[in-house]
Amino acid sequence: MAAITIDDVAARAGVSIKTVSRVLNREPHVRPATRDRVLAAVDLLNYRPNASARALAGSRSYLVGLFFDNPSPGYNSQIEQGAMSACRDAGYFLLVEQLPETGAALRERVAALLSAVRMDGVILTPPLCDRTELLDALAGEGVPCVRIAPTIDLGRSPFVYMDDRRAAYEMTVHLQGLGHRDIAFITGPADHRAAANRREGFEQAMRDAGLPVRPERVRQGAFSFLSGWECAEQLLDSADRPTAIFAGNDDMALGVMAVANRLHIDIPGTLSLAGFDDSPGAQVVWPQLTTVRQPVAQMAQVAAALLTGAPPDRDAARGRQLDFEIVVRQSSAVRGG
Amino acid sequence: MAAITIDDVAARAGVSIKTVSRVLNREPHVRPATRDRVLAAVDLLNYRPNASARALAGSRSYLVGLFFDNPSPGYNSQIEQGAMSACRDAGYFLLVEQLPETGAALRERVAALLSAVRMDGVILTPPLCDRTELLDALAGEGVPCVRIAPTIDLGRSPFVYMDDRRAAYEMTVHLQGLGHRDIAFITGPADHRAAANRREGFEQAMRDAGLPVRPERVRQGAFSFLSGWECAEQLLDSADRPTAIFAGNDDMALGVMAVANRLHIDIPGTLSLAGFDDSPGAQVVWPQLTTVRQPVAQMAQVAAALLTGAPPDRDAARGRQLDFEIVVRQSSAVRGG
DNA sequence: GGTCGGCAAGACAGCGCTGTCAATTGCTCT
DNA sequence: AGAGCAATTGACAGCGCTGTCTTGCCGACC
């Protein structure tokens, strides 16, 4: 209860508080023997420096902000997990904030926020990472940020991303490998860069395999269950059906699955299905969904590490690319199998 | 950039910094005219007090901790949303921490955490809210907490909860109202208090309606998709089937749905199905799941409000009960309809 | 042997705010 | 009009730590 302060440690170790401070902050000019003595005292007293005092006196706050404005619980949750784990390792703390505002209101809120609590850096998740006014506000306050999967102004800040294009390419190859030649694709919102990348990956893979991409086989969805449902009705409600459908995200894939069930189209017997994201829903349906797992948590982890200055290789390129994973479950199988 | 301090405001308003402080903290003994002048200066300069300095000098830190150790993204996400909204309204900030530890390690981590950043209160979500060692550690540090849906030691702290028993009762009544008399129930883990409450509510409703609760109609699940699947196979794989199944949570209900699909049992034509939680998955299947919506976000909001001292009625009982909602979707319908 | 250079460690002054206590003001009451 | 009292306001000392500057010390070098 009676909080231990740096003075207690200094007294115990027989040094000045400044020396304790130096040890704690890994500053140079401390003899190894002295350092050991201090560390022993710290351990003995179980001392933890007070974050508020540090923030007030010094230039660091040991706080990392995580800003989001994304209704997807699964995504946010993974991001948080990753960011938190990196913060913990670096002795930092995670402050989360939802920023539903846009435009001037956003700028204001961010300014207010940052003047109240100084942050050593913030992590921006989609779609915030592409909000120019936010980037401006952050830059104006001099707060560094790392963006996750940004799509514009890539030069403005370090960022972490996954190669949607290549992932979609490989998923398409997976379906082709199962014998599918007539594969339909349901794409996401037109203004969504990642959606476009996925579609490009799909089309490239088809071309590379010498397969045609029939226009009626590419449907425009909206990344929602319902839009997947609607596209599926168009794709499946005739005798001329594709043997496989690759949906641009899992929600839409689940919409396809619902329609297939209603029409008694067997998955994966008659129709193979693949999604993208490995959302929580992908495993609570039957058959479980073949999908692309994004390294979401890992991206956040890297982002946080970049901010806390404990990155594995700090001098890597500004854009850090992480690997996806093709998760093959029961919804895709050999054609006609 | 050149941060504005309380001195700037004081100078602008022509008062001492202490008076500004008083206004900001809503302390008494400030003449309305003075208060207005100060507030005008605050507005003009767009001043926000520095949280670190406040925390260091005063007894409050304006930080609320949200501790969790729950793999359910949907739940956490809602909790966070609710807690954040209440914090924002009260001028507080939300610090999230995952505490995977148990026993002594938990105690230690919490102590370390709290000695580094003082928190004005913490919100404990299930299952952490029932970890005695955590409650002890918090009490030892003198940090108040509010628990969400705790099941033990109800007197130890204020808490917020929902009446699982009554919710299950009403869902059962809903199914009965559709004409179902042979209803099966899939319960959750035996040591899970909420699961037991739900089961009790179901059984009570059956008794009150004069309907038998046949032992083979109550199956032991584990709150997972797979366990729902297994229970459903036992319940549905014979001619003597219930006309409705009420699963103790949505994941299990989805397992039931998967089996029904496989067996070509029409939902809701032949079998009505109800879940509990209104998890994200409940809406990305077809038919969409009839379920019980827990006021998760609202519970967190109330919890945070309790902590930040801005509760609607602070002197209400220690346990604040919030209302659930029966969400009727397509998976339940009139028997034989 | 004296002086310089550099490492190690300490003294000291705040960071921006709140708590305490003292000083001032503005009223009421007689 | 003056005393008496509460309502206002301000002066000042830290909260626990880090940044800057200073001091002490040892070996190297000429």
TrEMBL record, chains A, B:
It holds the Pfam family LacI. Residues 4-58 form the HTH lacI-type domain. CDD domains: HTH_LacI, PBP1_SalR. Keywords: DNA-binding, Transcription, Transcription regulation. It comes from the Bacteria. SMART domains: HTH_LACI. Coiled coil: none annotated. The keyword Flavoprotein does not apply. Gene3D superfamilies: 3.40.50.2300, lambda repressor-like DNA-binding domains. This is LacI family transcriptional regulator.
